[in-house]
Amino acid sequence: MAALSKxxxxxxxxxLNEEPAIGQxxxxxxxxxxxxIIVADNGSCDRTADIARTRGATVVxxxxxxxxxxxxxxxxxxxxxxxxxVFMDADxxxxxxxxxxxxEPIYQGRADLVIGSRTLGHAEKGALEPxxxxxxxxxxxxxxxxxxxxxxxxxxxxxxxxxxxxKLGMHDRNYGWTIEMQIKALRHKLRVVEVPVSYRRRVGTSxxxxxxxxxxxxxxxxxxxxxxxxAAW
Length: 233
Known about the structure:
Blueprint: E1 9-15, H1 19-27, E2 34-41, H2 48-54, E3 58-61, H3 67-76, E4 84-87, H4 99-107, E5 113-123, H5 130-147, E6 158-161, H6 162-168, H7 177-187, E7 192-199, H8 212-231
Helix pairs in contact: 1-2, 5-8, 7-8
């Protein structure tokens, strides 16, 4: 924690209809770790935004559905002098306290991008669906074969230096966000570290993993993104 005593970082949390979970998630966030907490409401039709505001978060609205679109909207709202950004889901699947493990390599000068790996850590039984595990293995295998780097996960819980994030020029507006960041990090020769994180069964209904059609669409987009970026390598 000593390396984080003067941390100047922000938390970005994309959220879509997370009324059952977002209050619980924000209550567990270590507030002394962040200068800004931004919830990107991705067109919720429930009380997600209202609950986030009552918990002290800054809420920005991105009506265009898509994980990447929500992240990009939140990035645009970041304070100018933030050193690092943590991305975390709003569904209570991640342990907010573990953000310290993501930020320490950055503030110790050892990494530019830190991925929270559910594979290296502990995933609660039932937290990851079989098709999620398979898709993750295929995507990381493709990166290893075509880009020469061994990732263990495309986990959404991650931290990145703000200057490195700007350098990547993130573009994807939906399911390809995580793999785009990890591939572009290799292209720009960022120092990438993976650290083990825990993963819990989400609160509420998943918009992707609990829906086979959405899961298939996400898988196709992730693989297409990997191939598209390879062509531009």
